[in-house]
Design goal:
Structural class of chain A: alpha/beta
Strand order of the largest sheet of chain B: 1-3-5-7-9-11
Number of helices of chain B: 4
Radius of gyration of chain A: 19 Å
Largest sheet of chain A: 6 strands, mixed
Order of helices and strands of chain B: HEEEEEEEEEEEEHHH
Number of strands of chain A: 12
Shape of chain A: globular
Number of domains of chain B: 1
Oligomer: heterodimer
Strand content of chain A: 25-35%
Distance between the termini of chain A: 30 Å
Helix content of chain A: 25-40%
Number of helices of chain A: 8
Strand content of chain B: 35-45%
Strand order of the largest sheet of chain A: 6-9-10-3-11-12
Helix content of chain B: 10-25%
Shape of chain B: globular
Structural class of chain B: alpha/beta
Chain lengths: 278, 245
């Protein structure tokens, strides 16, 4: 579903990723662990298309699963543009060249980035921000806008799933939110967008134990589905107690040094990165 | 009778588009007058017209304990100017919320001279400018606190957002205080849209123009909150913002 091949990237001319290769099949959760500065967040930003993160080599292919309700028409008659629109709708088994797409196109194709440091936007309410974002995605996929009432219903359901008061969504985006509230709100956003693939960048940092449980349960209920995939970036094993990964990868100095099953996370926790990579 | 045509040497006309002003100067004549009687309250919303040049000069006098709340949108295609002189008597209150939104080669400016003539007055001015292309947006705000006008509380907040390299924002708060027990604050910033915010919105599916429009709406969001009927001016501002992104 997400195929990363020999990915090299620089930030301000400095090489950070030095040949990352990784494949996440549909239906799986993969964890990426690694010490500070190993390139975990850079990988997340490159996948989401953040400006300033320059890919110098390699490729990323994203193959969203077919939308069950709409299967493709006569593909041979479609123009290139129609083909691409059709792929954004998830009608096509073909892979998307993720790195050639703008961030908003990646979102419409079904990619979601959970931010390590969610951004504050004074003067813009969460509800307005999420409704406009979701409807932009829907328009890009050729789906009709959600009405105000439909949207509120969806937002309320997703907020309650994450144990968040809907009143908070009337406030400006992340302004005055605690660290834990911001992370919960990221997961509420994920529930509303209902992406096909989620990259979660240290979603567990700054969470107390109750919030960690709620966020873990949220990830499972939103993303643990056939046809969906997750890349979970974390420093610590503890989130993996709630969201059990199918595979664990260790990123060090911009490369995947080791891969293994869930037991690898426990080994890292016990022995530290230096020891485990040796 | 019409006053003498201004020159750029006069501080309050320093950034004006005098060529655009020339043809309409005769019609301006003497400034309009608004008087709010002691203890009375007045609220006004000044919506823009479709004219390329829109100049409004108003002298306001506020009686003791009077209150005037003014909301204004300055978005002329060529030259817009809102020129206020406000005199406050004992305990009077003046609240002013305005935006300059300019595109192309336009000049939009707000010039205010708030005179606290007696004690206990309160003035609060908030001006936001959003400019793209080669547009100019200015705020020149002078506050005078007369001798003996103790306990005056005067506040100015001026922020500008520049969307293009060629756009210009001028912010010039000015204080002239002849009393020793007063509170006068002013703050001015000029900035551009935050790339982190733009990326955050993009990552949620908003195309760049829509992301910019949403951030700009947030930038001026607070201005109309306290209006009793904010609908018309908020809509007009939103429409003007969609034209500059």
């Amino acid at each position: 579903m997400l195929e990363i091949t020999n990915l090299h990237a620089t930030v301000a001319g400095k090489p950070i990723l030095n040949g990352v290769s990784l494949s996440v099949p549909a239906g799986e959760v993969h964890a990426i662990m690694g010490p500070n500065g190993s390139g975990k967040s850079t990988l997340a930003y490159v996948l989401a298309g953040r400006p300033g993160y320059e890919v110098t080599e390699g490729s990323v292919t994203f193959t969203p699963t077919r939308h069950p309700r709409e299967s493709g028409g006569p593909a041979s008659l479609a123009t290139a543009e129609e083909k691409r629109d059709s792929r954004l709708r998830g009608n096509d088994g073909e892979g998307l060249d993720l790195l050639a797409m703008e961030p908003f196109e990646r979102a419409a194709a079904g990619l979601f980035l959970g931010f390590q440091y969610p951004v504050e936007i004074p003067g813009v309410s969460y509800l307005q921000f999420l409704r406009e974002s979701l409807n932009s995605q829907r328009r890009a996929r050729g789906e009709p806008d959600l009405s105000g009432a439909e949207f509120i219903k969806l937002a309320r359901a997703q907020a309650s799933l994450l144990g968040m008061d809907t009143e908070m969504l009337k406030r400006p985006v992340n302004v005055g939110f605690s660290g834990g509230e911001k992370k919960r709100a990221e997961m509420v956003q994920m529930g509303i967008m209902d992406p096909k693939f989620a990259i979660l960048d240290e979603t567990d940092s700054g969470l107390d134990i109750d919030a960690l449980k709620a966020v873990g349960a949220g990830i499972n209920s939103i993303m643990r589905k056939p046809g969906k995939g997750v890349l979970l970036i974390t420093h610590y094993q503890r989130l993996l107690d709630y969201v059990r990964p199918d595979k664990v990868h260790v990123l060090q100095a911009g490369k995947i040094e080791r891969s293994g099953g869930p037991e690898l996370a426990l080994e890292l926790e016990r022995e530290g990165y230096a020891e485990a990579a040796a | 009778m019409t006053s003498a045509f201004p020159t750029r040497k006069q501080e309050q006309w320093r950034y004006a588009d005098l060529d655009a002003l020339q043809p309409v100067w005769e019609q301006l004549g003497e400034p309009e007058r608004i008087a709010v009687l002691p203890g009375q309250k007045l609220e006004q919303v000044w919506l823009p017209s479709a004219d390329a040049v829109q100049v409004r000069r108003v002298n306001v006098s506020l009686g003791a304990g009077a209150s005037f709340r003014l909301f204004a949108l300055n978005i002329a295609e060529q030259y817009g100017r809102i020129d206020l002189q406000v005199d406050l008597a004992d305990g009077a209150e003046f609240n002013f919320f305005a935006a300059n939104i300019g595109t192309g080669l336009s000049t939009n400016e707000i010039v205010s001279n708030v005179r606290h003539l007696e004690p206990n007055g309160r003035s609060h001015q908030v001006v936001r400018s959003v400019l793209n292309g080669k547009a100019t947006g200015s705020y020149l705000g002078k506050i005078e606190v007369a001798h003996g006008a103790q306990k005056t509380d005067a506040e100015q907040s001026v922020k500008a957002m520049l969307l293009d390299r060629g756009a210009t924002a001028n912010a010039k708060p000015e204080l002239e205080i002849f009393a020793d027990d007063v509170k006068c604050n002013h703050g001015a910033t000029v900035g551009e849209l935050d790339p982190n915010q733009l990326f955050y919105l993009g990552s949620r599916g908003l195309p760049p123009a829509e992301a910019r429009a949403l951030l700009l709406e947030g930038f001026i969001a607070g201005l109309w909150q306290s209006a009793s009927e904010p609908g018309a001016i908020a809509d007009a501002a939103r429409e003007a913002l969609r034209r500059v992104v």
